[in-house]
Amino acid sequence: MKPPAIAPCLGVTDTQATVDFYEKLGFTALPAGNDPDDDLRILLFGGEFALMVYRDAHLRDWLPVLKDTPVGAFGMFYLAVDDFDAYVERIRPLVTVTKEVEHHGDRIFYFTDLDGYVIGVNQKRTR
């Protein structure tokens, strides 16, 4: 697996619940290391790195500068999929839909995860 240039690591309230949520959406979760007490997980989508999730308390211990930062984010993440229509149809009953829009000819399906992170699904581009 080729590591990305930037790897998001999201603080979450319950790592296992977040992993379960994303697995229902077609992601695969891997442990990030060999420490059984460390709940950092790597999430893959289509066999490629997508993001990491880490319990908020552990993330705050790891980086004390985040100690007062709430879970969730101001902003959004995008997930490019091979078949937009099929993927959105499959996940729609599993998520809280935030917005559906067509912008410059591209359709985007926004939903929130368990901790309020916003994910925008769009068709993967070939160029």
Question: Could you characterize the architecture of this molecule?
Answer:
By secondary structure, the protein is α/β, with parallel strands linked by helices. The protein has a single domain, classed as Roll (2,3-Dihydroxybiphenyl 1,2-Dioxygenase, domain 1), CATH 3.10.180.10. The protein contains three helices and eight strands. The strands form two sheets. Strands 1-4-3-2 form a four-stranded mixed beta sheet. A hairpin with a 5-residue loop joins strand 7 and strand 8. The radius of gyration is 15 Å and the shape is globular.
Task: Provide a compact summary of the structure.
This protein is an alpha/beta fold and 127 residues long. It has three helices and eight strands, in the order βαβββαβαβββ.
Structural class: alpha/beta
Alpha-carbon Rg, integer:
15 Å
Biggest sheet details: 4 strands, mixed
CATH level 1 name: Alpha Beta
- Indicate how many domains the architecture comprises: 1
Parts with pLDDT < 50 across at least 5 consecutive residues = none
What share of the residues lie within helices?
A: 10-25%
C-alpha geometry: globular
* Strand/helix succession: EHEEEHEHEEE
Shape-level CATH architecture: Roll
Strand portion, in percent? 35-45%
Terminal CA distance reads 21 Å
- Strands in their spatial order, largest beta sheet: 1-4-3-2
Global mean pLDDT:
89
Domain VOC: 2-124
InterPro entries: Glyas_Bleomycin-R_OHBP_Dase, Glyas_Fos-R_dOase_dom, VOC_core
Organism: Streptomyces blastmyceticus
Pfam family, one: Glyoxalase
